[in-house]
Amino acid sequence: MAGRDLKALFASNDRGLAAVEAFTNRGAQWQAVTDALTEHLHHISDPGFDVQDLEAPRRNVLTFYGVGGIGKTILSRKLEAALAADDDHRPAQWDQPAWPAHPRLLPVRIDLARSAGTDFERLVLTVRLALAACVARPLPAFDLALRRYWDHHHPGESLEEYLRRGGLAGKFGKALPQHMRSALGDAAAALALPGSVATAVGQVTGALVRALRERRQSVRALTGCARLADLLEAEPDLEALSYYPHLLAYELAQLPADKAVVPVVLLDTFEDTGDRTHRDLERLIQRVVWLMPNAFFVITGRSRLQWADAALEGQLDWTGPQAWPGLDAPAVPHARTAPGGAGRGRQVLIGDFSPEDCDDYLARRLTRDDEPLIGAGLRQVITRRSHGLPLYLDLAVMRFLEIRRGGRTPEPADFEYDFPALIARTIRDLTPDERHVLRSVSLLAAFDVPLATRAAGLPHEAAAVRLSERPFVREDPFGLWPFHLHALIRSTLRSADDQTDDAWSERDWQQAAERAFTALGEQWTTSTAGGRLLLVGCLRQGLVLARDFRLDLGWLCEAAWRYIADSVWEPLAPPAPDHGTNTALQTPADALVGTLSALARRQHEHRERTAERLSTVIRADLLPADLAEMAVYYLAKAQRDLGRTAASRTGMQRVADGGGRLAPAARRGLAHLARLAGDFPTALRTAEHLGWEGRHHRVEGDVHWPQGDMDRAAAAYAAARTEAEDHGVAGERATAQAQRAFVLAFTDPSWADDEIHLAEQLLAGLDLRATRLTVRIAELLRDAGTTDIDDRAAHLRTDIRLAGLASVEATLDLALAFHHAVRDNHTAITTSIGRLREATRDGDYAYYVDIAHFMADRPLAEQDASSAQWLDGAQTTRTRWKALVTARREHLNTLSAEP
């Protein structure tokens, strides 16, 4: 359904252009209205319902709230049209509800925006005027009180003239003044007052009060209204007027069934009724809602209603969850009442449009000859940039017309744009402190109240607390920091040319970034909770701030060391740096981002790419010495994985000689390089001096298993795992266990199965690609000698090559050689030996060829043997490997012999 879009219509001279106010979806919100209204109709039709009961809880209100520009006003208008039983104006997505013919629903929409000029008096008159147009009879209790109020507050001004001048007469007709005169005349006649005083409202109401007090038969029609006399005696001021809706509710309850009507009052732009300090108008409106329990109210605004908050007692007349069941329920993001009983879920957050709805909106907003004026490609760009916010779509449409008016065809690049108007609309009803906090937290991907307060540099948290309750602040109660800004609003605050009165200068932004950066560091260094999760969260946000605002690394240095210490490798890569088209590293923060991102990404990309990233960081020479050592060490590790032994040895030696934090790890790397070359005695001697920092037990296991000494290797890996547990290093614990599973898979399949399962458990939540591949090779070894190995090995080989892990592929070929030796498949063994010889041609892991010969009990000519220095001699090593193959054959024969 669409109405004329005058703004777009007057933005172009193109008379062939059809500009409509497109309305998209919102079917879930309509369902929420129909569900709540159906419940309301059942409630007021119950024989026990008493319109004059002032103590019963109220369930006659439904709130839709959301960020500015989300479509609340247009939703309110569509609800008004749909509730008027106007099928032509009900959106096609909305079903016709099966409500009874009686009572009739009477939608009354009232815009509370300051620009609309609606005060409380006008609000009450609007409701009564709508009823006058619908119910062709006076409502005497209310009309008499209103006449008394009018004459007191508007002496000499007729109601007719007031309504005409304010435009209400044209909208609702002139029935109300006639009804008020009839009510006054009927009361005078019932009281047998002389004609000379019949039109003097003061004397009529005075006589009526006395008659009501005396319960005279002549006014029996009004004696049922228990509080009428009190209201007529009260001073006819604005305070009294706010209680008159009680009389209106009473009169509606007296209507015969065929004339019954249920007002559905739609109060739009509710945020303009005041703020948390000034609630005078809100208090009067709440009084109307409470005193008219047979009417239904649909409130749309930027914020949740707080009426169910008991802390507001004294500011509002009725507060707390007992008074307003449903308003204390969690927000319903998809606009359906929450489960759990009647009245629940009466606060509905208006969500963003889906991509499909955005495209539909843009396609129908501007058309020519019933075809969309905005092409599909352009609609896709606008949809992506909008993040589902209808206001952005509306602004994009106007930008589209503006560009056309300039004489050229709009292009996708024209909409890679942030609209400053979004800022003005967002902050319109925020206090200065709230606006300050909002801009500060736009620097953060997520925040909590203390972090927001520190980033804003405020001495108190009140503004941050209030901001956290705004609809453009999304909440994830399970997140490290529970709050984050709507994505579009955040990006616009950061990048748009802000023309508001309190717009920030570049220096303001820089100071806010410094405060936020410092606050993150303080949270990480002082918190006793959060652990690894807090470390990674602070790193992710701190790296972006330091990079984008060229901050000193500060606490990031120590955080980076803590990040690598556990070998978990959570992804850290932030968005692309904000240096325009220049992608070169320019600051230490750029270099640190590049280093840590490379280390995390290496679990998901080829080691060649890792080496390229780290080489770029080292060439830039921007990092302090200790962090530069980190880049050198991990480059050497990548080079080792790629088979570049000489380059790896150079890097490891440089780090080891430097004596820094990674010196023990570099010495371990040198031991690994010695092992790769087959110099097992040197590797073992080095391991004896590595200590925990150099992972000495794991190096020992790495040396012993090529000797075929699986029990000794397994024991070393178990010791490495225990030591890692004692130090709380999850990555090392998982790696040691994976290696233990690998070596035991050569010996006992059933035992290996438990070890593999434990390794998988320890790897849960860790990002260790090479270690996971080791476990998969262990699974193949556990099943060696069976028939389903080759296909699994082929898939595993593909994954290994994608990772660029040459050493792991050689280990896979060694595992396959073991499998073929168990099956005594001479042809396959020959193929495996050929692959191993090709893979180890540069000398690294050349002893794998020897081991393959040992497994198959094949002779190995002296000139073909590697230069490996076996710990116990080549013959002992051969015997051990041959024994492993024999034991596996016997195990399989035993299994096949079992019944």
Question: Can you walk me through this structure?
Answer:
It is a single chain. By secondary structure, the protein is mainly α. Among the domains are: 27-349, no CATH class; 783-899, no CATH class. 56% of the residues lie in helices and 5% in strands. It contains 41 helices and eleven strands. Strands 4-5-6-3-7 form a five-stranded parallel beta sheet, sandwiched between helices. The two termini are 75 Å apart. 47% of the residues are buried. The model is unreliable at 332-344 (pLDDT under 50).
Structure in a nutshell:
With 899 residues, the protein is mostly helical. It is built from 41 helices and eleven strands.
- Mean pLDDT metric: 85
Helix content: 55-70%
The Rg value, from CA coordinates, equals 39 Å
- Structural class, from helix and strand content? mainly alpha
Q: Can you tell me the overall shape? A: elongated
Measured by DSSP, the beta-strand proportion falls in 5-15%
The biggest sheet, with number of strands, parallel, antiparallel or mixed sense and barrel status, is: 5 strands, parallel
Strand count: 11
| Spans of at least 5 consecutive residues with low confidence | 332-344
Spatial gap, N to C terminus: 75 Å
Number of helices: 41
Strand order of the largest sheet: 4-5-6-3-7
